[in-house]
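Input record (Table S2, row 430):
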Amino acid sequence: MTDQPHPAQPSSHRDQPAPALFTWEFATDPYPAYAWLREHAPVHRTRLPSGVEAWLVTRYADARQALADQRLSKNPAHHDEPAHAKGKTGIPGERKAELMTHLLNIDPPDHTRLRRLVSKAFTPRRVAEFAPRVRELTDHLIDQFARRGSADLIHEFAFPLPIYAICDLLGVPREDQDDFRDWAGMMIRHGGGPRGGVARSVKKMRGYLAELIHKKREALPAEPAPGEDLISGLIRASDHGEHLTENEAAAMAFILLFAGFETTVNLIGNGTYALLTHPDQRRRLEESLARRETELLATGVEELLRFDGPVELATWRFATEPLTIGGQRIAPGDPVLVVLAAADRDPERFADPDVLDLTRRDNQHLGYGHGIHYCLGAPLARLEGQTALSTLLTRLPDLRLAADPAELRWRGGLIMRGLRTLPVEFTPSA
Ligand code: HEM
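Output record (protoporphyrin IX containing FE complex):
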């Protein structure tokens, strides 16, 4: 982190009005506002809809450094809010819940220990072995609407795919997975429902996971069987003789569900939308899939993440000591939000950043974060994203939007960016 002001940062930016953030227009297209911030106020203090004041970091170089800066803690205890405001800010982890002691809310050395333990269970190999199941799930979901000629791809495809996939991977029995679908739907407010429904869903999910972990622990065979589920792997994982406690295992299962669910919904939703609105790019991808090549699919999904990624802002960080980001002094206790979506469109880092180019190779985007909290589920997200997009394009070749893009509604959450619905049409097929 440099102590020198960024040379391109004008000192007079305070004279210019900052664009309105967190409005309906902003949720629909935040990129013009991010371009303004990158240019005029790259480290910008703002009041969030919850009332909390936080710094937004929007330039790629600053964002990348901030994500890896150990002086920025993930532990909400470092947040310098008056005590009476704590727990009312909407900052995850300020709510009193055992489930909140998870990877995204802790620092080394606890983070190092827990991440090492979960990495022993959640291996790239386990994810690779899971590929046939993801293909089967994808086909099964498309079968449900293929004869109809129309669908809402968020509710009928992007939403159920990751929840069933993670449930399967964790080892939640199939007969219980629809409960998870309902709880998760309530949690991201797809399902609407009564007031307090979200809190009740979290409680039910937690109760269910605690019981499942307990049952699996009782029945755990001495040696792992091939294809063992992830919860059993978590129970088995140990580090210098130290096991995860049942509480830690439950918090870990919960964060895998939580971190891996809405993100993947939005990767599939935003990615499909981008392809449907960029016909030349879509055609190139279809031609490459027809030749059974996988290279463009791989670079393409990375580019879709950069271009309109599921995670708009990285999760919270709090300064533990005075520091300078992009020439701006940050005081201890100040919350810092790294705006991944803004950094990934920085023209200082990416050529023609507002152009979707599925062949882009120099693409070290920040969509999965950076540093010690880099997304643990990236191999699974890539598998799901690549399978979902390639199967959709191959099975429904004349897939098209059934709504004017201007009418589509984006969810204006703080951390995530995604569509509420994605209505499509296509020629019915068996
Ligand atoms: C962390 C993005 C899918 C599990 C992160 C972070 C980002 C991210 C940006 C870092 C947040 C920060 O530094 O504040 C994404 C995107 C996904 C995705 C864009 C889909 C396209 C998944 C999946 C899983 C998962 C499928 C697991 C099933 C996690 C976990 C962390 C994490 C456990 C915390 C890691 C740590 O703190 O050490 N993800 N994620 N993610 N992600 Fe993902």
